Prior knowledge:
- This protein is mainly alpha-helical and 108 residues long.
- It is built from two helices and two strands, in the order ββαα.
- A hairpin with a 4-residue loop joins strand 1 and strand 2.
Amino acid sequence: MSVALRLTCECTNRTYASRASLKTHQKSKIHLAWARNEEIKHLRVRLGKMEKDLAVLENDRKWLQTKVLKLMKHNEEQSTTVEQLRHLNQKLTQQIYALRKTKKVSQS
């Protein structure tokens, strides 16, 4: 049983006898053009994935923006309600003090 090393370039599926001849081929215009085209294919696939990811993120951003606006509106409504309650409490406290004063005046 013998083991043989096969040096094959993917661009032409050609087998080379030595590493030196494969390296020489890899410096050729044909191989360099093939390598650039392969890189372009890979980059296009990555770009497509990134565009899909970007679309998902944009949808998430819009959803979150809507949620934040709803929460801000709710918070604003709650703040208004709290202010109204404070104002009402203040009026009632004043009325209670006024009633106590009138009771004290009428009792004396």
